Amino acid sequence: MANRLAGESSPYLRQHAENPVDWWPWCPEALTEAKTTNKPILVSIGYSSCHWCHVMAHESFEDPAIAAKMNEWFVCIKVDREERPDIDALIMTAVQAITGHGGWPLHGFLTPDGAPFYGGTYWPPADRQGMPAFSKVLEAVHTTWESKPDDVQANAGHISTFIRESHSVTPTPGEIDDLLVDDAVDQLATRFDPTSGGFGGAPKFPQASALEILLRAAKRGNDRARQMIIVTLDRMASGGIHDQIGGGFHRYTVDAVWLVPHFEKMLYDNAQIARLYLDAWRLTKNERYRRVVTTTLDYVLREMTHPQGGFHSAQDADSEGIEGKFFVWSPSEVIAVLGEEAGERFNRWFDITLAGNFEGHSIPNQVVDDAIIAEEFGLPLDAALAKLDSWREQLYAARAKRVWPGRDDKINLSWNGMMLRVFAEAAAAFDRADYRDAAIRNASFLLEHLRRPDGRLAHVWTDGRLGDPAFLEDLANLADGLRALYEATLDRRWIEASLALVDQAIAEFADPNGPGFFDTGSAHETLIARPRELQDGATPAGNSVMTELLLRFHAMTGNEAYGVRALRFLEAMARPMAEQPVGFGRILCAADLYRGPIREIAIAGKADDPDTNAFISTIADRYEPNAVIGLADPDQPDLTERFPFLQFRPQREGKVTAYLCEHHTCLPPVTSPSELNRLLDEGIGVEWVAF
Known about the structure:
Layout: H1 11-14, E1 24-25, H2 28-37, E2 41-46, H3 51-61, H4 64-73, E3 75-80, H5 85-99, E4 106-110, E5 116-120, H6 134-147, H7 149-166, H8 180-191, H9 208-219, H10 223-238, E6 252-253, E7 261-262, E8 265-266, H11 267-284, H12 287-303, E9 314-315, E10 318-319, E11 322-323, H13 331-338, H14 340-349, H15 370-377, H16 381-399, E12 407-408, E13 411-412, H17 413-430, H18 433-449, E14 460-462, E15 465-466, H19 472-489, H20 492-509, H21 542-557, H22 560-572, H23 574-579, H24 585-595, E16 599-604, H25 610-620, E17 627-632, H26 637-642, E18 657-662, E19 665-666, H27 673-682
Helix pairs in contact: 4-6, 5-7, 8-9, 9-10, 9-11, 9-24, 11-12, 11-17, 13-14, 15-16, 17-18, 17-19, 17-25, 18-19, 19-20, 19-21, 21-22, 21-24, 25-27
């Protein structure tokens, strides 16, 4: 018989609807039940594509004996961390304080008033590898609750105080100087893996925010940063973390060499990684990076896009109850699709062997360079890669006949904003109309269909059902995506919507007593503390993205309040950025933007003029992370009034005209994309004149 989760919109919660556990969703009724019965609350947190969440569900939550103890002793609440990041953040803080580590599945034991007093992550069904059985944990917590209630309440009070302090204390301010980014690169180098790229050993995560600051440093001429980013992106592109058949990237690898992943695919990973490769292509013009971008975005369009334009959240690691089964191959399976000669070649090039590299099967990973593949084909590189793509397409078609992994269909606003940005930027850089259409459809869908009755946006949308109000990360990443879409199209509606979201964040999320923003706003549920994330993790902190946006809009609008607010937060994070750059990569990018100079590029013309698009393409072809772009259209005087860097920017001789400025000083206007490209190359080495 189904429990209360059967009617929930979250795919993760519905996965537990048939458990014998009497699960509640997080709701006022569940909290009232705990107070009425004086039972502690067991909060179990995970997400739909989490492999170990599935394992614990099968081992423990489907076990009637364990479920009986849970039902008798606790009010059991299931939480989808992707729907309620605020609850997840607070329980994670508590568990890390108690155990010294965190992760998912995540479990917190709370008093009926909602204060955590104990917690942990995964527990096995029986004692194993130093971990106690889950049933023993339940018994110990129940016994302590019954026999030592005063001790439990005291411990809950201490942990609650720690949580509140952790989410309210701001580091001592420091100075943002010109050496900060180079010093961060030096720090990153101490953790860099020179053989396989990335930072540290196993397990290995892409650490996209940290890699992004390496790109910015490389742009400024830091050769060490350039080498680190190239090694990392090359190894990742060849590895098993990269789906060599269908495109896109898995979450992380359990080893240090990017070979064996946990096979879930997350939208936010693919958005951030695709943008890294896009920016690396802009910087180096390495065509391999361009191919990684297009195969990743094509995968998203093919497998992760809702018919109305939203992007789905995740694909599972498991199919038929076996992790990775959908993605692995044997040599005979490849030969059955491609034939003997082609199959043997593909197997050799992509490490598909009888012994296998993962539980008797093979995860495709490229072990032969493209140039050697072209030589063996006897074809020019482009023709060889095109032929290789045709083989991949055949293998993809064969793989598509297998039982597919589950997909989490909910539309997460924050992650959609990340993916919107890369689609918009790739559309302009590669002149891909399909990417541009996907970006416009996505932005339109988010702004229309994720609108709650009170006018605020929702954090998630699932089959037409709206979730809680948007969090800071939602407003920040959507505003960032809309800003990128404006720069790719010069359609004013996108920059106006972006700026409105920034102003909303200031009004509803800003810390009134210090720098930065809280993760929850005035419309959110009041919990034991108001979460505030300062550190960049698997996704960038909302504070990091918002700080970068404030700097950009300060440059565009001249609004000093934006710049002051951004600088206060940057100064507060100066010491953590310098000491722990792996965890503060995106805010380091904001510091690099503050360091400047910010390049103001005003294009005088009409958005629908093909010559205007030629200028957009020229800019998008380049890696210009510190540029702001806008359209000076004489028919839109109200917009140029809001963005002073667009004022007094007429067309010359009736032609579309570009103006390049830094620090309110401008180069002579130009009327061809090639001239703009030259000015961007030469920069301040050219004679500057006032306009």
